[in-house]
Each structure stands twice: as structure tokens, then as C-alpha cells.
Design goal:
- InterPro entries: 2Fe-2S-bd (IPR002888), 2Fe-2S-bd_dom_sf (IPR036884), 2Fe-2S_ferredoxin-like_sf (IPR036010), 2Fe-2S_ferredoxin-type (IPR001041), 2Fe2S_fd_BS (IPR006058), Aldehyde_Oxdr_Iron-Sulfur (IPR052914), Beta-grasp_dom_sf (IPR012675), TAT_signal (IPR006311).
- Its EC number is 1.2.99.6.
- One of its GO terms (cellular component) is periplasmic space.
- Heterotrimer composed of PaoA, PaoB and PaoC.
- There is one protein chain.
- The protein is an alpha+beta fold and 216 residues long.
- It has two domains: 77 residues, Beta-grasp domain (Ubiquitin-like (UB roll), Roll), CATH 3.10.20.30; 80 residues, Orthogonal Bundle (DNA polymerase, domain 1).
- Helices cover 38% and strands 12% of the residues.
- It has a five-stranded mixed beta sheet with strand order 2-1-5-3-4, sandwiched between helices.
- α5 crosses α8.
- The longest helix is centred in the last third of the chain and has 17 residues.
- The chain is globular and about 55 Å long.
């Protein structure tokens, strides 16, 4: 029994205090000043910055919390909800979009890092009256079931074929100096980061093969 019971701390209280102290130390001086002026705590202060990029051919100018992911900027601020939030940890691929012609997981990058970039979401690939060839192929080969992962699957599939065309190798590329081909093995390896919980993988491979001009 401690002689000073009022000074006792349990482990949870100690860790909570240490975490709060570390968070305060990591905040920039501007955030601390802003918090002081508004009467709030520094840990709650949102630091915002302007960011402008082009989404599906349209320039967008936003004032965002620096912590806003590109995924949340697209969904919550621009209201392009075709891009889905699945795991929010970069493990399922549902949030895949194209940035400057390359596919990325939108949940793993901050929106403010994309100043001036060209971003294409599923809404920008095609429309119901003018589908992208990959969208048409997914319909033809039934490359979806519940449809939740489909926007990310299609954006990733388009990105995969662009990677092959650009000669960017994957882990299964046998000849790094030869002509790159969209083989079944290449496409399946490159699409491995896009999870379909319904299991439509073979149909997705068939759709990609048709667009690539090869048998699956």
C-alpha cells in the first residue's frame, strides 16, 4: 500500500497521459496558437490548407484538414461515391483510383499531396451511355456480384493494362528486357491487391483478357 494513495496511477492512466503529451508535441505551432485563440485543446485543432486538383477533367478547389485522405476528399467533399471505402488500410483495393495515369489506393494518401494532379475515378472512366471498354467487358463476363469492389477492380484493371503497355515489370515478369505481355499470370499477379469477397476472380480475368486482346 502506497503512503501517498492520491498520487497512484494505473497503467491505463499513465499511457493515456503519455499519448496526449506526445500528440501535443507533434502539433505545429500554428495549431497550438489556433487552439489557444478558440479556447479548444491543441489536440482537437484542425489545421487546414487549400488544395486544387483535376478530377475527371474538372478542376476542384478545396480547403481541407491536412489529415484528409484522398478517398475522403473524393467521397465526402466532392461527393463522388463510386470509389468505395473498404478496409481503409490499403489492403482490399476498393478505393483504387487513377492519379496521373497510375493506379493508387486512395485511402493511403493525403489529399493535400496531390496538388495539381489529374485524378480519374470510376465516374470518369465512362458513363452509362458511353462505357469504357473495361466496363463493357465486366458486364459481358459478369465480373462482379455484389458490386461493392467493382469500381476499384475496374480502375485497377485499366491501370494494370497501362502498366504492361508502359513496360513496368511485376514480381512474375520473367524477361525484364523483352517486350511486356498481358499474360494471364501477369494480370492475376498485378490484380492480387484487389479483393473480391464474392469470388468473381475468373470472370474479372476473362474481362481483362478480352480488353487486352488475349485469351484468358
Amino acid at each position: 500500500m502506497s503512503r501517498f494513495p492520491d498520487l497512484e496511477l494505473n497503467r491505463r492512466q499513465l499511457m493515456s497521459g503519455a499519448t496526449a503529451t506526445a500528440a501535443l508535441g507533434a502539433l505545429p505551432a500554428s495549431a497550438l496558437a489556433q487552439s489557444s485563440a478558440t479556447g479548444g485543446t491543441a489536440a482537437d485543432a484542425a489545421v487546414t490548407a487549400p488544395v486544387a486538383f483535376t478530377v475527371n477533367g474538372e478542376r476542384r478547389e478545396l480547403d481541407l484538414d491536412l489529415r484528409t485522405t484522398l478517398l475522403d476528399a473524393l467521397r465526402e467533399h466532392i461527393k463522388l461515391t463510386g470509389t468505395k471505402k473498404g478496409c481503409d488500410h490499403g489492403q482490399c483495393g476498393a478505393c483504387t483510383v487513377m492519379v496521373n495515369g497510375r493506379r493508387i489506393n486512395a485511402c493511403l494518401t493525403l489529399a493535400v499531396l496531390h496538388e495539381g494532379d489529374e485524378i480519374t475515378t470510376i465516374e470518369g472512366l465512362g458513363t452509362p451511355d458511353n462505357l469504357h471498354p473495361m466496363q463493357e467487358a465486366f458486364l459481358k463476363h459478369d465480373g462482379y456480384q455484389c458490386g461493392y469492389c467493382t469500381p476499384g477492380q475496374i480502375c485497377s484493371a485499366v491501370g494494370v493494362l497501362e502498366e504492361v503497355k508502359a513496360g513496368i515489370p511485376s514480381h512474375v515478369t520473367a524477361d525484364l528486357n523483352g517486350a511486356m505481355e498481358a499474360t494471364n499470370e501477369e494480370m492475376r499477379e498485378r490484380m492480387s491487391g484487389n479483393i473480391c469477397r464474392c469470388g468473381a476472380y475468373s470472370n474479372i480475368a476473362d474481362a481483362m483478357a478480352e480488353v487486352a486482346g488475349r485469351p484468358a
